[in-house]
Design a protein that fits this description.
single chain, mainly beta, Immunoglobulin-like, 6-stranded mixed beta sheet, 5-stranded antiparallel beta sheet, elongated, disordered N terminus
């Protein structure tokens, strides 16, 4: 009888190894980023056509019925699974083309800025105060994520920490932004 009890811990260990051992983390290196857009028509992060297998570019898009003069977004993702990537101009943010920014209004006050601090990416795009607010149903700003060295396959939580819009009246309002499903494969 003592031999059976002495063997029980070894048997449990063998069964645990045979079943894959418990955890949700993978030991398979990631080679591509997969993103499925969220449903609905509210404020959401949508995959941009410029995305590749290893670089995901997301656009902040609002509801077609909303108008704004600016937006701000702070988000967080696991830095062991994805990294915030810079665009070719060296910035973390790209103009989505909706707000009246640099291309046509070079002498007007405006803001297009992004940065990383404490593992969070903060972005802002604001056109000149007093400029007519624009419809938010297309890309307002863009940012990118890439796979860091050593990342493993699996789901990546993408958390919206804070999101705001500057409405047509010049009032800053909190908005709820939906993110899709982000996975490393």
């Amino acid at each position: 009888m003592n031999k059976i009890f002495a063997f029980a811990p070894v048997a449990a260990w063998v069964l645990l190894l045979g079943c894959g051992g418990g955890g949700g983390t993978s030991s398979v290196p990631a080679t591509s980023i997969y993103y499925s857009n969220p449903g609905g028509s509210g404020w959401r992060l949508l995959k941009d056509a410029s995305s590749t297998d290893t670089r995901l570019v997301l656009s902040l898009v609002g509801p077609a019925s909303a108008t704004a003069s600016g937006v701000a977004l702070t988000l967080q993702a696991s830095d062991t699974q994805v990294t915030y990537a810079k665009f070719s101009d060296g910035t973390y943010i790209q103009d989505g083309g909706t707000f009246k920014l640099y291309a046509t209004y070079t002498d007007e006050p405006q803001l297009l800025a992004g940065g990383v601090k404490n593992g969070q990416l903060t972005l802002g795009a604001f056109q000149k105060n007093g400029t007519t607010a624009v419809a938010c149903g297309s890309s307002l700003l863009k940012f990118a994520l890439e796979i860091p060295d050593g990342a493993m396959t699996g789901r990546v939580p993408l958390t919206i920490v804070k999101a705001q819009m500057l409405d047509a009246a010049g009032t800053l309002q909190t908005i709820s932004v939906s993110a899709g499903t982000l996975k490393l494969k």
